[in-house]
Amino acid sequence: MTIWVDADACPVAAKEILFRAAMRSETLLVLVANQYIRVPPSPFIKMVQVMAGFDVADNEIVQKAQAGDLVVTADIPLAAEVVAKQCVALNPRGELYTRENIRQRLNMRDFMETLRSSGIQSGGSPPYDQTDRQKFANQLDAYIARQKSC
Known about the structure:
Number of strands: 6
Largest sheet: 6 strands, mixed
Helix content: 40-55%
């Protein structure tokens, strides 16, 4: 199993959780971003810098991820693509995207996008807080444990 991270928008606190989990569990962690991101020295952590451009990092992840991999992203369309490839997607706030819930999440995203484009202010995401970090860490640890026991 490989953990792929849509790293451009991933909160620093979530990356730190990922770094510790990858080293502790000896699981390959690959961060994909348009810009260079410094990662700790480890044979289990890699950084892939892709060219700048719309969805270039997302396309790299979709192309390389394989069934059983975990993809960390808040990008719902990316999550839908990797779930279709039999991967599991986890957002940095600890929500798992699965075959059972991804269609609903896509529909809600599209609805909110329609509201925003029509001028209705919908606010943004709340700040990334300790509760988000804990939920993310718990889901990540549970997923790694399930994969390691198989």
